[in-house]
UniProtKB/TrEMBL annotation:
Coiled coil: none annotated. Keywords: Transcription, Transcription regulation. Residues 40-49 have a biased composition (Basic residues). Residues 147-157 have a biased composition (Acidic residues). Part of the nascent polypeptide-associated complex (NAC). Transmembrane segments: none annotated. Belongs to the NAC-beta family. The keyword Zinc does not apply. InterPro entries: BTF3, NAC_A/B_dom_sf, Nas_poly-pep-assoc_cplx_dom. Residues 53-118 form the NAC-A/B domain. It comes from Chromera velia CCMP2878. Residues 25-58, 134-171 are annotated as: Disordered. This is Nascent polypeptide-associated complex subunit beta.
Amino acid sequence: MTIVSSNASKMDSVDPAMLEARKKLLQRAGDASRTGGKGTARRKKRVVHKSQGNDDKKLQGTLKRLGLNTIPNCEEVNMIRDNGTYLSFATPKVQACINANTYVITGPAETKKMTDMPPSEFPMLGPDAIPMLRKLQEGGAAGGEGKEEDDDDDDVPDLVNTNFEDVSKAN
């Protein structure tokens, strides 16, 4: 007994031009829009999901593995740089693992000049900052004298005895 499929007879009766048109249509829309394997649905647009906030979660997970402990009652943190500026954290969250010599300071930071630092904080800087403070003091004193000499640049310039209309007509 032979079984003849009805699909086979239908495929034979389809015009070859129609088959060619179907192939072109599948090639144009099929390859780029298929997101998975052979049996998946076609999509018009491939949607790529961005990881939002995962970086912060990964960082916090890594910090937990290090065994950081939160240090309470830190009201302000200042990190001094070599170029005469410092980072000032007004309300930081300070975490530390003293065994691993790891410190994490998070919060809004602001870059300030050393000349803007309140004098009450100078004793907290330590002996490493003394040469830098002397340089800033000498530079500030020298810079202050230079600024007094160049004050006339900020004044309104004197008027020149020329008629601007005559100059514009000559051009």
